[in-house]
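Why run this: before we spend reagent on co-expression, it is cheaper to look at a predicted model of the complex and decide which construct boundaries make sense. The entries below are exactly what would go into the expression plan.
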Amino acid sequence: MRIKIINPNTHLEGTKRIERVAKAHARSDTEVIAVSPEKGPDAIEGSYDEALAVPGVLEEIKKGIEDGYDGFIIACFLDTGLYAARDLTDKPVIGIGEASMHMACMLGRRFSMLLPAPRWDITYVLAEFVRRYGLEARFASARGIGLGVLDIDKDINKTLEILKEEGTKAILQDGAEVILLGCAGFAELDKKLEKELGVPVIDPVIAALKFMEAILDYGKKTSKISFRLPERLKK
Amino acid sequence: MRIKIINPNTHLEGTKRIERVAKAHARSDTEVIAVSPEKGPDAIEGSYDEALAVPGVLEEIKKGIEDGYDGFIIACFLDTGLYAARDLTDKPVIGIGEASMHMACMLGRRFSMLLPAPRWDITYVLAEFVRRYGLEARFASARGIGLGVLDIDKDINKTLEILKEEGTKAILQDGAEVILLGCAGFAELDKKLEKELGVPVIDPVIAALKFMEAILDYGKKTSKISFRLPERLKK
Amino acid sequence: MRIKIINPNTHLEGTKRIERVAKAHARSDTEVIAVSPEKGPDAIEGSYDEALAVPGVLEEIKKGIEDGYDGFIIACFLDTGLYAARDLTDKPVIGIGEASMHMACMLGRRFSMLLPAPRWDITYVLAEFVRRYGLEARFASARGIGLGVLDIDKDINKTLEILKEEGTKAILQDGAEVILLGCAGFAELDKKLEKELGVPVIDPVIAALKFMEAILDYGKKTSKISFRLPERLKK
Amino acid sequence: MRIKIINPNTHLEGTKRIERVAKAHARSDTEVIAVSPEKGPDAIEGSYDEALAVPGVLEEIKKGIEDGYDGFIIACFLDTGLYAARDLTDKPVIGIGEASMHMACMLGRRFSMLLPAPRWDITYVLAEFVRRYGLEARFASARGIGLGVLDIDKDINKTLEILKEEGTKAILQDGAEVILLGCAGFAELDKKLEKELGVPVIDPVIAALKFMEAILDYGKKTSKISFRLPERLKK
Amino acid sequence: MRIKIINPNTHLEGTKRIERVAKAHARSDTEVIAVSPEKGPDAIEGSYDEALAVPGVLEEIKKGIEDGYDGFIIACFLDTGLYAARDLTDKPVIGIGEASMHMACMLGRRFSMLLPAPRWDITYVLAEFVRRYGLEARFASARGIGLGVLDIDKDINKTLEILKEEGTKAILQDGAEVILLGCAGFAELDKKLEKELGVPVIDPVIAALKFMEAILDYGKKTSKISFRLPERLKK
Amino acid sequence: MRIKIINPNTHLEGTKRIERVAKAHARSDTEVIAVSPEKGPDAIEGSYDEALAVPGVLEEIKKGIEDGYDGFIIACFLDTGLYAARDLTDKPVIGIGEASMHMACMLGRRFSMLLPAPRWDITYVLAEFVRRYGLEARFASARGIGLGVLDIDKDINKTLEILKEEGTKAILQDGAEVILLGCAGFAELDKKLEKELGVPVIDPVIAALKFMEAILDYGKKTSKISFRLPERLKK
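The model came back. Tokens follow.
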């Protein structure tokens, strides 16, 4: 099976990291690549960035259809452009945000998300995002770690330290039983953090990749009842 | 006060109709224009259309900021690009969908929406849309009237007849107390339908215009806590 | 247009203040007066006060119908007698509580309310009130400032100081993006507090007045499906 | 123990029937009376009636406190004035609507209510009422039987027939497992209807009476955290 | 009337205490006994214990049917095996958890539960339990007191002290107006704690007993729509 | 990886069919077996059956731990004993009901379930089940096909015909976009029904198997915060 991962931003280093993580976890019979759109914002930090990133994502979906890919993963935690992408094809399209939440639901009662940026700034944005999928009863909290995206890599030990701190609060104060890493910058920290916290820590890219393999293995496709192109665009 | 209405699609006849309706209901001291983006889809019939329409909407917001408009209305019932537009400015930005729902909440217990397209195709898409604003407890139903956007104008009496039929079902079967006309093509039918149905029938463009005048009069602006540009884009 | 504001309590100084605020924000073509019922409690601090205030409110609605007013505003944050008043007339009747919440929903993701009295005493009463309108997904918190209604005016700077303190907690701890001033005693503090907090601060009386003007301009009335007098009372 | 039942309307025949039913089901050591307020509407058919009935209900509560009653039951299915009555005393006050719903929850998964008046007129009013208590997940439906309050008694067999018909629909179409009789006019029909429908049928007056006996036996009182008189009224 | 209480665990001292409490609160015409299953876990501290306890509970229900008991109470706060027991008989079966919540709803706006074990460990398990009955809107919190079941009795004054401490937090921080004692080990502490906290404190065994007497007095039975044995087991 | 599927009932033919389906869809490096408990009910048709089946399921989990299996699947649509099984081990345990719902959520907006038995009998039982996982916003309906478990096999073409009929109603009337086959007896009908209905049709056993492979590949385990044995049972 051939899976195309689309990183909605144009930060190519991030795209490479996503590909590296994906290849490390793909099955031997899975071919996976990660790309960025040719044009668009180099980070997705809000609705404005999202809006400008989506057309490029859709271009990559279209190219991917022509190139015969079997499934598509949208590799931004906010699932940028997911529903629009589903309109374009009956090949499965999975967002890493939704995939990580659904996996978490089968491993524990409630999940929390760790993201960059200060706490008060993101909690309710994420709550709204979770609500979009109807998963609010399983949502414990979203916690920002107060680091800019660029700061994350500078001192990876410090980053891990802060993740541990906020993750512990998520467990003890918010009732989280599973932790989601809501930023590609946190990739490859899942195992270490899991060891520190003692609860499952999920890298959303890997969750989406494994669920995509599962869905493709079973041969399921996107339902085309409401996810579809309008008649006037079909020809 | 100066209000700019942005019709997210490029169907200019629709834009003119929106402007005509708006001018007819604007206060004497309100200056209002309606525009379409230069590029983009000529209809918004799903997430794919929405995604391609948003960048053009944002361009019009930016131009409108430069031109000194006081407030912006997004004139598609699905509030295309609303949150991204709010990221760009602290001037109020209102979607016609949300405005019509909030007005309906002050006139009756529950509202239904009438839209083109067959019923089974839209109910749950709209339910999801209503849920985004947390108004599901006030939502009675969304009903399609089974006409294409272009068919609506062909025989306006027939359109009115079908609207009356589905509106009656919304009231008697779904529990609606207020009816929202979810398509610019239904503009100028609100009064006639209201007479037929005996309950308030709201044209969302007018609802948004009147609420925008109200908000501008009071001098309120968009909260910039979570609706804002990321730091890296500010300069 | 002619709007009658009914302050459900008989504290005439408060009624005058409400009228002063309303006149200051009314359009030039809006005639607005504020009255209190002839009899009833001089403050509304709970369900018992509410119950005794409602008959007087309804008397004022009846008089207002005879006097040809176009719309009615109920000027108590708990919307005392709102549904009963709607039973009496198809002229629009708006509560200042609901109006301020609906306006807040178009300016930010979540709102908090600031009220007199200690915190633990009001949070859940207000939550129940918000739930009545189905707006709980947009509700961040209700915070009391621990001052009696009479203390508010004694040292207006101290009052402002405490409002700022609790408003800041509402933003940082509860996730509020818009603040509602839930007491007529806070009137004329909205602009000052807005400057301090940096988020929209809404005076509910003004929100209701502006929305009433909007609804009257558009010619909408209350739906009479469930808000109506029983047959036996109609003659 | 001495229990005072207050029928919020002044229809004395109804009050007698309530008393007769209550006495028939009271324990031998329970003294129970039913009264109507001296003044007020002779039927409660909406918010307007409710508003005018409440002051009389509160007068009866006050008299009942002086007369040393141990508990109070408000005998209108919409629990007219319940929260205001609780403000007045720490003696338990129970509404027959809430009591019947709580009893139903311990006998089956979901309940429906049968009331006079046509279906489309009451469903959502009742849904709102159920929501006030947070019981919407247990609510199957409210069904009107299309008879005026006075018609109910005219042909009791016909009334029973219609109740059976609508009750059957509630079970088969709405998923009800327990039926609540939402009108004092239906009193003394519970056993017959139960035999016809094969599911528990609850007379709310009896449910409230038995739960009041239970609560008094155990010595529990109303919590005075939020149900209480304001300081200024206590002396 | 004859009521059989089944303590799902085999800790006979606890069963005796339950019986003692029940007999102390039963009416003179109520015969009540408490039993434990012959086999099964000696404590219910999670889903595993629950699963192993249920078959024994069902055996006791069967024996109780043969012995002609009129109603059954399941005396574990998590209502162990309640729905399975209801499948077996149309005699009413009440769980002490549900009974205490329904009683609390008629005494105050929101309730909290006090249980053994640390706070972070139980909050969300209990939230899930409350959600099963659809009562989440009335649920303030579940608080653990950090004592093992065996420690509770060792120093009853210390236990009371901690209950008071956590109960106070439940009231002031979580918004509780009624407190439920979620452990048989807390039996006979309700009155003392009530005096300390100033809000109703409910012993769930007593709540269930009094509600069972109420339901039996009224002659109501379990609805057999969905609570019933499959056809293949009926003969 | 080695996966053990536990069919909670003792109907061995069903167990064989489950194993056959699982082996047909397992990856080449997956070893999968299906077993039934030694003792227990031969069908799970309600809470009573469930209660008696769980102890046998837990025995099989324990044996499976000793035998070194990597993950466990509970192959009853109601996820019989799932939480108790999770208490026993940190190896992932997945219910086929939850797995099929989570897969459906990534393929369409709402799902319906087709099950044996008449419609009015199961809708609300299933709604309660869905609510346990917090997925009610994604749930369209549960529809019974009115066949006994044994009748399903008798005339497989007729079964398919009825499934098609009810599935069509689920799509057109209830708003389903994905169909779940809620009975092992429907195994091997998924592809045929999918062709007829034109929307994804999910066999829950396969969904659970593929998700288990995904989770094991990634090395995730069950969170042991609340799913765990009590201290007294650990040694």
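Chain F has two domains: 2-97+206-233, 98-203. The mean pLDDT of chain F is 93. Bring this page to Monday's planning discussion.
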